[in-house]
C-alpha cells in the first residue's frame, strides 16, 4: 500500500508539471491560484480492508490433501480434516464445529471451528477449547481411566443470545464417556464449560454410549436431547431450556432407536442422531448414521409427530424395534471415472434462514479412506414428506428454469442397494459402493429406448414409469455441479422409489 501511494503521488506530480510547461507560452493564461491547504481531518476514515479472495473454490477443492494435512498447516485446512460436523448460521455466516482429526498426524484436542459465507470456502478459526474440558476429564478419571486426547462429535446451537456447544469425550474403556456443555456469547468463543449433561460407564447397566449429542427445540419451547452410539442404541431425555442441562439431574434417558441383528450379531453400528423439527411438514425427523464410519457409513431417517416418538420409518415401522430401517438417503457411491466417496454419514442438518435445509457430512475418498472432506448437500422433500439429498455436493449453481427438452439426454444413475454386513470395523472392510449405470431419457418419452419404461416431467419432478406403469416414482430435478467431471452446471435428480430406495442421477450429455 505504501509503494502504491507513492507511485500515485509521483504520477500526479508529473501531470501537474507537464500541464504547467504546456501553458507557459500561451497568451491570456490566467495566473495560478494557490488553493489553501485544507485542514487535516482529525478523524480520518480508515481505509477499507481489502476483501480477501476465497482460498477454496469449487475448482480447487480436491479429494486428497497431502500438502496441508498436518496441524502445522491448520490455517489452510478449509474444508479438509472435517469429521462429525455440526453447522449453525449466525447472521450471514455459517459456523462448523467438528471432531478433532487430522489426516496422518496427531492433532491437539479442543473441537475445531470453521466459518463460511457460502458453504464452499471455509476459514479455519482454531479450537473451542485449549485442551480437554476439565469436567469431562475428571469424570473419566474418577472411573479409573484416562480420556482420549481428542473431543468428538460436537453439537452447536443458539438459544437467545447464548451459544451452546455440546462435546463428547470418551476413553479406551468401553462405554466410559461423557457429554458436556460449554457456552459463549459468540459463536467463535471464548467458551466456558458449564457441566456434564449425561455420562455412561462400563458398569453393567443397560445404556448406550454417551457421545454424539443433538438437541431439538419444539414450537412451545421444550428442549429434547438425543445421543448414543452402539451398545443400546439411541437415547432421548429432556433438557432444562434455561440451562441446557438435563431437566432431571442424572437422567440417562430411554432408548428411542436401535438396529436389527443377524445370527445374534448387530447389523452394524447405529449412532449420531440428528433431530430437526420441520415446521412446514409439522414433523420431527431423526437422521441416523448406520455402519462403520470409514467404509459403509450411511444415513437413515425416521419421523414422528412428537419429539418423544415413536419415530417411524417409511414403511411405518417403529425405528426402536430390532430391525434396520428405510429410507437410506445417502450411502457410499461411485460415479464413473472417480474413486467414489465412502464414510458419508454423521449428518449435521441445518437451515439457511430462507427455509432451505442442508445436510453436512464427511466424505472419505475411495482412493484413501483416511482423508476427510466436508460435504454439504441440499435437502429436498418428497410430496409425502420424506427428505432426500442432492446427488452432488452444493456448489451454489444458479437455479435457472429446466424445460422438458433440457431433460432429454444421457445420465449416470445410482440406485442405492444395500448389503447387510453384521459387525463393525473388522467386518465392514468394504464400503459397498453403489455404482452408477448409464441411463438415456429419450425425446419420445421412453427410457433407454424401451417402450415399457417411460418418463414425464413437470417441474421440478421427473416421473419414472417402469414395466408399463407397474412401478412409478418421482425424482426432484435441479441444477448442480458435476464434481467428478468438473462441469460447472448440469442437471441432477434425486428421489425415493416406492420402497424407499434412494435414486440419484446426473446428466452427462
From TrEMBL:
One of the GO BP terms on file: carbohydrate metabolic process
Site (described: Important for catalytic activity, responsible for pKa modulation of the active site Glu and correct orientation of both the proton donor and substrate): 212
Positions annotated as active site in the UniProt record: 84 (proton acceptor), 271 (proton donor)
Key words, A-Z: Glycosidase, Hydrolase, Signal
Comp. bias (Pro residues): 37-53
Gene3D superfamilies: 2.40.128.10, Glycosyl hydrolase domain, family 43 (2.115.10.20)
GO molecular function, one term: hydrolase activity, hydrolyzing O-glycosyl compounds
Signal sequence extent: 1-19
UniProt pathway: Glycan metabolism; L-arabinan degradation
Disordered: region residues: 24-55
Family: Belongs to the glycosyl hydrolase 43 family.
Protein name, entry field: Arabinan endo-1,5-alpha-L-arabinosidase
Organism: Flagellimonas lutimaris
Amino acid at each position: 500500500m505504501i509503494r502504491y501511494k507513492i507511485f500515485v503521488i509521483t504520477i500526479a506530480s508529473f501531470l501537474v508539471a507537464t500541464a504547467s510547461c504546456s501553458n507557459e507560452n500561451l497568451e491570456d493564461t490566467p495566473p495560478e491560484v494557490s488553493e489553501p491547504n485544507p485542514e487535516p481531518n482529525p478523524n480520518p476514515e480508515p481505509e477499507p480492508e481489502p476483501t480477501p479472495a476465497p482460498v477454496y473454490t469449487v475448482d480447487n477443492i480436491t479429494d486428497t490433501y497431502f500438502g496441508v494435512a498436518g496441524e502445522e498447516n491448520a490455517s489452510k485446512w478449509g474444508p479438509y480434516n472435517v469429521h462429525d460436523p455440526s453447522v449453525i448460521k449466525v447472521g450471514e455466516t455459517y459456523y462448523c464445529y467438528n471432531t478433532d482429526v487430522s489426516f496422518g498426524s496427531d492433532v491437539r484436542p479442543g473441537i475445531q471451528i470453521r466459518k463460511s459465507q457460502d458453504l464452499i470456502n471455509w476459514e479455519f478459526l482454531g479450537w473451542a477449547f485449549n485442551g480437554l474440558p476439565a469436567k469431562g476429564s475428571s469424570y473419566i478419571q474418577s472411573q479409573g481411566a484416562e480420556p482420549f486426547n481428542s473431543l468428538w462429535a460436537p453439537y452447536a446451537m443458539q438459544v437467545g443470545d447464548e451459544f451452546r456447544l455440546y462435546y463428547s469425550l470418551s476413553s479406551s474403556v468401553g462405554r466410559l464417556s461423557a457429554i458436556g456443555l460449554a457456552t459463549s456469547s459468540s459463536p467463535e468463543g471464548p467458551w466456558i464449560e458449564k457441566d456434564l449433561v449425561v455420562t455412561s460407564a462400563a458398569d453393567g447397566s443397560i445404556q448406550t454410549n454417551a457421545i454424539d449429542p443433538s438437541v431439538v427445540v419444539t414450537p412451545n419451547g421444550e428442549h429434547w436431547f438425543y445421543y448414543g452410539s452402539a451398545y443400546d442404541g439411541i437415547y432421548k431425555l429432556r433438557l432444562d431450556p434455561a440451562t441446557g442441562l438435563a431437566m432431571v439431574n442424572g437422567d440417562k434417558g430411554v432408548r428411542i432407536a436401535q438396529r436389527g441383528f443377524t445370527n445374534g450379531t448387530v447389523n452394524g453400528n447405529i449412532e449420531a442422531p440428528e433431530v430437526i423439527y420441520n415446521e412446514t411438514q409439522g414433523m420431527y425427523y431423526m437422521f441416523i448414521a448406520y455402519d462403520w464410519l470409514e467404509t459403509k457409513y450411511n444415513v437413515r431417517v425416521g419421523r414422528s409427530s412428537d419429539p418423544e416418538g415413536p419415530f417411524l420409518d417409511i414403511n411405518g415401522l417403529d425405528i426402536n424395534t430390532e430391525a434396520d430401517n428405510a429410507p437410506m438417503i445417502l450411502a457410499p457411491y461411485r460415479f464413473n471415472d472417480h474413486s467414489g466417496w465412502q464414510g458419508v454419514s454423521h449428518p449435521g442438518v441445518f437451515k439457511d434462514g430462507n427455509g432451505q435445509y442442508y445436510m453436512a457430512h464427511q466424505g472419505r475418498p475411495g482412493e484413501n479412506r483416511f482423508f476427510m472432506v466436508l460435504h454439504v448437500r441440499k435437502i429436498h422433500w418428497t410430496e409425502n414428506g420424506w427428505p432426500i439429498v442432492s446427488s452432488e455436493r452444493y456448489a451454489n449453481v444458479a437455479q435457472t428454469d429446466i424445460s422438458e427438452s433440457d431433460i432429454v439426454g444421457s445420465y449416470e444413475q445410482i440406485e442405492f442397494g444395500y448389503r447387510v454386513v453384521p459387525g463393525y470395523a473388522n467386518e465392514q472392510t468394504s464400503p459397498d459402493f453403489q455404482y452408477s449405470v448409464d441411463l438415456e431419457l429419450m425425446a419420445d418419452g421412453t427410457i433407454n429406448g424401451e417402450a415399457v419404461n417411460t418418463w414425464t416431467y413437470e417441474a421440478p419432478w421427473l416421473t419414472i414409469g417402469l414395466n408399463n406403469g407397474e412401478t412409478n416414482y418421482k425424482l426432484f430435478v435441479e441444477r448442480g455441479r458435476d464434481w467428478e467431471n468438473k462441469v460447472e452446471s448440469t442437471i441432477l435428480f434425486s428421489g425415493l422409489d416406492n420402497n424407499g430406495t434412494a435414486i440419484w442421477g446426473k446428466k452427462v450429455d
